[in-house]
Structures are given as structure tokens and as C-alpha cells.
């Protein structure tokens, strides 16, 4: 699901045509943003070291406008044993080729 896309041939998911879905999505997202996901500022990145010994791969699309690269980069930096993979032609859409 892409919120913003830089691809000229992007076709939105048909569920966005449903007004009830759009309203529910907007309410959910704004509620989480308003409360910062119910977490202290930066606590997830700061606590990433607790995952030491647990392997993980962070995949980030270079064309992801909505999610800046700094976030997965910081998470990767603080998570020993993680790997950050950048996908050149991908954005924030799960349908992008990886």
C-alpha cells in the first residue's frame, strides 16, 4: 500500500475507493501519530540493542518518500546483527519488486 508514489504508472489499491476504508485509515493513523505510537520519543531505536543476537533484515525502498532512510539506518546502527537492504526501485508499496 503506497501513501505517496513517485512512479508515473502507479495504480492505487482499489480499497482507497471505499470512503469507509479511507475514513477508518485516517482515524487510525492520526490516532497513532497524535500519541506517538504510545512510546517515548525514540525509544524503539534506543532499545534496538536488546535485539542483539536476534538476526533481522530491514528492507527499505530508496523511493520511499513517506518513510525517510534515516529511521531504518538508525535502527540498523543500534541493532547488532541486523542488515539494512536498500531497494533502488522500490518505494513504500508492498507490491514493489524487491
UniProtKB/TrEMBL annotation:
This is Proline iminopeptidase. It comes from Phyllobacterium endophyticum. GO terms for cellular component: cytoplasm. GO terms for molecular function: aminopeptidase activity. InterPro entries: AB_hydrolase_fold, Pro_iminopeptidase. GO terms for biological process: proteolysis. Transmembrane segments: none annotated.
